Protein 1
Amino acid sequence: MREGSGRSAALAAFPVVRTASVRARCIGVEGGSLFGIDLAHRAALVAGSGGGIGGASVRALARSGAAVACIDIDERAADEAAQQATELGAHAVAIVADLSQRDHVERAVSDAEARIGPIDILVDVVGEARWGRTIEFDDEEWDATFDLVLRHFFHLARAVGRRMVERDHGGSIVAIASVSGLRSAPLHGPYGAAKAGLMSLVRTLAVELASNRIRVNSVAPGSVLTPRVMAMMSAERRAASSAAIPLGRFAEPEDVANAVAFLASDLASYITGQTLVVDGGATAQFPLSLRA
Ligand SMILES: NC(=O)c1ccc[n+]([C@@H]2O[C@H](COP(=O)([O-])OP(=O)(O)OC[C@H]3O[C@@H](n4cnc5c(N)ncnc54)[C@H](O)[C@@H]3O)[C@@H](O)[C@H]2O)c1
């Protein structure tokens, strides 16, 4: 086939995306863009929706037209996320659950489905680092990190994945990993190991669920300016760390949320089992410079 040029040829090259009718809703992509993210008529469950990356993900999905169930252990944070999504025109509900508890996971997923419909998109943001020298961690701290970072994702992906398979309508699962699981750094012992396990589980789920048209991916942020990170870092330390990042700044939560919305959408329909690194180039660079 002869290669065409201009807008009509570009449209013909990507028939899967309903570009002609799509409203360009994706944040960071203004009206008139060829590739808007359209999640209209999709139901999304965001776990850990009350935090920096979770809140931004809720807003990105809501702007893209999805109905959103905002789940968090913190009731006020879940309510606020749902409120923000509602103000953006989305159907949104808040659900309080401790997702490190298996029975809470089952209950929260059932509740979400009862209130926004069968889940098409799962975004799992829950996780928290404990920093320390590996040889100084005790077993309880090690287990607590693995429970919060990895085990809850197994429970959540299993609960949602089983429902997606049963429904036979496909789906998309996106987990928030971390560059800590890709590269080593002092004090990252259990957190990095658990995030590495999370990315491994994402790949396995992706190949197991591909025949059910369920895509499973992760996003690995570098340093993100969430309220939690801002609270624990001085301005001086942040400036010094920013200087070591090729793009010269920390990520905003929206930088990560844009990647989440992309992977959740049909624009990523041929992407599964992958980790999308969102780190301003931090892990791409060789640590030694030839310049004096
Ligand atoms: N902020 C960063 O620099 C950064 C970098 C790489 C990866 N990450 C990862 O991104 C994710 C979010 O990070 P963040 O900085 O936005 O964190 P955050 O603390 O702002 O958000 C986490 C949210 O999860 C909720 N949560 C915690 N435990 C829960 C539980 N048991 N059940 C239900 N909800 C629970 C919290 O209430 C909070 O709203 C985490 O998985 C983190 O490991 C963050």
Protein 2
Amino acid sequence: MEEAIITTSLNPDIYQVERAKELAEKFGFLFVERNKKSLIEVARGLPVLLVTKNRLEVVFSDKTKLYFHPGMAKIRIKGIKKGQQDIMVKAMGLASGMSLLDCTLGLAQDGIVAQYVIKDGLVVGLEKSKIIYVLTSEGLKAYDEDPDLIIPMRKLKAEFGDFNEYLTSLPPKSFDVVYFDPMFKNTTGKSAHILRLRKIAAKDYINKYVLKKAREIARERVVVKGRKEEIKTLPFFDKIIAGNDSEIAFGIIEGQI
Ligand SMILES: C[S@@+](CC[C@H](N)C(=O)[O-])C[C@H]1O[C@@H](n2cnc3c(N)ncnc32)[C@H](O)[C@@H]1O
């Protein structure tokens, strides 16, 4: 779903109104003056991008919210600093100076961890949902809490786009690693965060054609994250790695596909 209304919280200051108008113009959302209207009145059944004093939120018709936050990225970076192994970093074989194309940026938790590890290298993150792209690209610019996260957040390059098209526009061997973390085909309904993301996320899945293209773009490897059970049934991978106590696995393609 790409349409959304953009408005402010009640009693906005002039900066909120200006920011809402600016985002509406930049991304093609409809700006509605809040006045004293309820969000239901403003929403017209669409998701609402709400510019509050402190942040940008998406509010859904059931009043649940989604906003940018580093979430697990913060904990994972703390672990990496202490010398703990991050299974995604291991699967990608990341090291300082490398380049990564993250084809499914989402709220950039994986992208931030990857950018932290590759330091002067670069993560380019693609996101097909305009609403998620706005939350993430604006959030990456605005976050100002943990210094360990600020540097990778400012460096990571978020792009609005569809991996199906983007991959065909790149010359071979453009990135060291190409990564996919598509939405699960079925949701277990465990995480409220994932359920909210699902409402606005693109649900494109990988297939042989996309992975073949990605393998041409990747100098070293293509990595796909998914449920262990799902990844094991896919015929594409040279190697699968997973934590013992996790239902998540990473499929790795290093050879031809
Ligand atoms: C499971 S989330 C990724 C979460 C992300 N790895 C993180 O750590 O925050 C999948 C994301 O991929 C996006 N997506 C799905 N199909 C896409 C496509 N064809 N091109 C770009 N992004 C896509 C969805 O909109 C969603 O935001």
